[in-house]
Amino acid sequence: MEKILILGGTGTTGRRIARRLTAAGLPVRTASRTGADVPFDLDNPGTWAPALDGVGAVYVLKPDMAVNPDPQAGVRGFVTAAAAAGVRRVVLLSGNGVGEADDSNPLKAVEQTVRTCGADWTILRPDWFAQNFSESFWRLAILDGRLALPTGDGRTPFVDAEDIADVAAAALTEEKHAGRIYYLTGPRALSFGEAADVIGRASGRTVRHVDVTPEEFVRQQLSFGVPEPVARFLTGLLVAVRDGHGGAVADGVAEALGRPARSFEAFAAAAAAAGAWR
Question: Is the confidence at residue 152, as pLDDT, over 70?
Fold first, then answer.
């Protein structure tokens, strides 16, 4: 059987996808800079051929625009090489709002590259990951009890990475998802204050959201050692939520899987039970 290649196979979505496919008895190859089955760097073409050997489908993450000013460059070369190597199916994890963005958004070029690479394609456009609170950016703030972000009362429909993994695994293995774009969100939009309250109830902790100015947030990030361009990029994303551009609730999970998206409450209960905030 041809292998399924999971780029970012040790990350938030990649490891979940790999776990699902392996449990289904499918041959999986994870790829990442470190810790995966094969070393891989999207910006180093020398790592591509070993990763693609014997592969029939591939999961591709969008490059991190906070650190990569030309994110389509590596993707363009890689998916072209993948199609030439015999890959027949490409699933791209893109970003929320790409469809509504103007042509200057580099993720539009990334998506277009995937759509014209010659393989069947599926594009996933997720909202903010719920797991940012339990595994990533905001976990330490939750543990500290003070989530200081420039988001005001803006709302966004956080999506559970378990749902993203379910949709990606289906798209990698089922023909019916070819040519589809799925907007992936949770079932309702929450403010960061409401999310903090839900996590507090689930974890038994006192957690509150503190609204800070964009300038304060940038200074905070710089004090943590975050490079200024990255700090300002992240601030812009959060301010967009404050300004009412947090994304609308979508039914992409139901479209792909025939079931509703998991709620934020279900995510928080599962994360608390797993010890995310101990």
Answer: yes
